[in-house]
Amino acid sequence: MRCFLGTEESQNNDGRAQPLARPDVDDNAGGLRQDAGGPASLATMGRRAFVITPHQHGNRHLESLLHLAGREKHKFSSALKELEHHVQLEVAEALIFNIRKHTNGGMLPSADGSSPKLSAEQRDVVIEYIPEVLQIMDRLEEHGHHHRDARVSLYATEALSYEVSTTSLVKAAPLLARIFKNIDLMLAKSPELKGGAPFIIKGMMFLNAPMPVRSVRKAKECFQTAHQIDASSPRNNYFCGVAAYLEKDYARAHKYFAEALSLAQTAALVSNARMTQGKYDAGSVCLANKEMPMDEYLHVQCRLGMDLASTQISQTSAHP
């Protein structure tokens, strides 16, 4: 099970891997400390991984963080232990962001409800960085931070779902148990987190589970609850469209897909306008609670969903 959450604003959604910079490079956004790979530089990378400046397409802090987590894991682990919990969470967010960027926003399901497979390249990205995310989540949970900050359970759930996608069915069982535990905790403490993301995750579990657990009806209830929390969310509208299509309510599916596409396009225009007008400066950090502007994959799937629904409506009209 892989879940599309879309909870950060993205400055680069072209899906291409960026060159990995060495962690001791300096730049105009403030530079990294000389203790490259140490706690101070790791904290800087985590905090500045989403700094956006006008016309900036790459991000050296994010690239340096990825280098450290992927190529110098011992330094990463040592430095991580000395960071405060909220900084550890920022580092995890940056790593999760990178995985989403390379997996179509967290492997968004197709408009017809099918789940795309990870490509070899996507699988490599997951395998390289998910252990570090889980290391952070385990450390935070060990100190009880998941009871105080629901984002810990949210990112742990997302990381575990990626882990499930790259492991065997036997090894997946305990991971799924942890996922369900995290979902229950999020729903109990922060059901409105990230525009109803816990309900989206729970709904995805019902869609992806084998029979007899699989239930489109229960998934739809979860997606509609998320929609009630935030009806302006492209993500929430899209998932409602997927559920409606699976239930053969094609008119409603078309409506949700069209709304998701419109909202996603508007979000992208607003983001681009802010970039052009220089609204983001070297000190603005975009770890926002809003959804990130949806990438082209979502646009394509919304259009596909509208076409599929229209075709079904036409066929029904021709053969009442």
From TrEMBL:
Region (Disordered): 1-40
Annotated organism of origin: Nannochloropsis salina CCMP1776
Domain of life: Eukaryota
Name of the protein in its database record: Uncharacterized protein
